[in-house]
Amino acid sequence: VQLQASGGGLAQAGDSLRLSCTASGHTFNNYAMAWFRQGPGKEREFVASISGTGGNIYYLDAVKGRFTISMDDAKSTVYLRMNSLKPEDTAVYYCTASVLDLSKRYHSSWYTRTSTYVYWGQGTQVTVSS
Asked: N or C end of the chain, less CB within 10 A?
């Protein structure tokens, strides 16, 4: 599975950006997909997740109400719509994926852990100025 993230760039506070992550080699049916970010001098943190069924949508508290994760299975693409951007959103954003065992039920915390995810894209830089 190869993941290609795009859509990052420079923005001003209050602006919007949409990140895209295109996957090659699979459809989303039995995968969990997520976005993580790593700001300057910070550890990588979970931002948002979605499963192949379109469910299991979770967000970092700091982005709730501003960011929206979605997917287009036909295009094998996951999106992260980021509205009302803040300088603290400045980070490298990574797209990531992990295989789901559809016979299992996963606790919400599973979707937010870095260790859950096996496949990682190269990251796209988002810089928000005040």
From this structure: C
Distance, CA of 113 to CA of 107 (rounded, Å): 11
Both tokens of residue 77? 């693409």
Residue type, 101: D
Beta strands in the chain (DSSP E): 2-6, 9-12, 17-24, 31-38, 45-51, 58-59, 67-72, 77-82, 91-99, 119-120, 124-129
What confidence tens digit (pLDDT) does each residue in 108-118 have?
Answer: 999 999 999 99
Distance between CA 49 and CA 100 in Å, rounded? 13
φ, ψ of residue 14 to 5 degrees: the values are: 95, -15
Specify the DSSP class assigned to residue 42.
S
pLDDT tens, residue by residue, 32-60: 999 999 999 999 999 999 998 888 999 99
Contacts of residue 57, defined as CB under 8 A and 6 or more positions apart, other chains included, come to 48, 49, 50, 69
Q: Which residues pair with 46 in a beta bridge?
A: 36
Q: How far apart are the C-alpha atoms of 29 and 73, rounded to whole Å?
A: 8
